[in-house]
Amino acid sequence: MSVQAATRPRPPIAAPHLRKDAWWALPLTTAIVLGSFIVYSTWAAFQNAHYWAPPYLSPFYSPCLSARCLHVTFGYGLPEVQLPIIGVLSPAFLILWGPGLFRLTCYYYRKAYYRSFWLSPPACALPDAQRGGYSGETRFPLVLQNYHRYLWYVAVIFIALLTWDAVLALRFPKPAGGAEFGIGVGTLVMWANVILLAGYTFSCHSCRHVCGGHVDVFSKAPTRYRLWRFITRLNEQHPTFAWLSLFSVGLTDLYIRLVSMGIIRDLRII
Ligand code: FES
Predict the structure, then answer these.
(1) Listed residue (92, 46, 41) closest to 66, CA to CA
(2) What is the C-alpha to C-alpha distance for residues 120 and 117, in angstroms, rounded to an integer?
């Protein structure tokens, strides 16, 4: 843009914006879907029941760290945490901060909820609903979004734990005791969930940086270059993984919950 064009005064347009398309459809849909997930996951975390339908463990309760867990992940349990008013804290609250903060600080979700919940701005070429002036993510609390790069390491630990859960979902308890190999619909649900969550985690911008984004001379680091190229291709699909993994984690909990409550029967394939 020339200096002349930059200093030219804006034309006197009275309308707040000139968009005539359904610009509101995307932020509205995002607000409904994200809001529904937040409501459902909070409700599920408070339930403190029906998260274990052997051999399936809900991802909202994995790893299950409390001594009161129906299925203690590491063979021992932490003492239960009791809070005023709330009472005994569900085991979900001991771990959900990890994946929760990872998603909350995700670059893609930031754009999604800045637009849909804060209308800041709701879409391109629309005025920002926040009138206080744009400060980006340079001040508290939004400056904390920069810790996303460290939360990525936490998210990788959760992928390892959920993969282990999916492996255990191949070991069905026998009526006479012990366990046997098997595959049920729940096994497939858990594997689909962990694959989508891994796709989301490893397509993260921070992962791309860790794998090779910080390298100055790629010709001196050919392995990192190949890895960076692979993650870059994955990174292009990050929004898709963000939504698919959001649905998969919620639906996996719902499936295991319904099986545990006896509302549906898990179909054994093998
Ligand atoms: S940018 Fe979305 S998870 Fe890192």
Answers:
(1) 92
(2) 8
CB count in 10 Å sphere of residue 242: 20
Residue range(s) defining the domain that contains residue 71: 24-131+139-261
- Return the residue matching tokens 């179909």: 267
- In the chain, how many domains are there? 1
Q: Examine residue 5 and state whether it is found in any structural domain, yes or no.
A: no
Report how far apart, in Å, the C-alpha atoms of 66 and of each of 57, 150, 155, 174 are.
Answer: 14, 25, 20, 26
Going by the DSSP 8-state scheme, the letter that residue 268 receives in this structure is B
Give tens-digit pLDDT for 83-136. Answer: 776 677 889 999 999 999 999 999 999 999 999 999 999 999 998 888 777 778
Please list the alpha-helical segments (H only) found in the chain.
Answer: 3-7, 25-47, 92-95, 97-104, 107-116, 148-168, 185-202, 205-208, 222-235, 238-261
The finding on whether 203 has its CB within 6 A of some atom of ligand 1 is: no
DSSP assignments along 6-26, one per residue: HHSPPP---SS----S-TTHH
Ligand 1: centre distance to CA 241 (Å): 10
Task: Note the pTM of the prediction, 2 decimals.
Answer: 0.91
Within 10 angstroms of residue 268's Cβ, the number of other Cβ atoms is: 12
Distance CA 207, CA 213 (A): 9
In a domain, 3, yes or no: no
Residue 192 belongs to some domain of the structure: yes
CA of 206 to the centre of ligand 1 (A): 7
Whether residue 158 is contained in a domain is answered as yes
- Which residue among 107, 196, 244 is best mutated to probe the pocket of ligand 1, counting the most ligand atoms within 8 A of its Cβ? 107
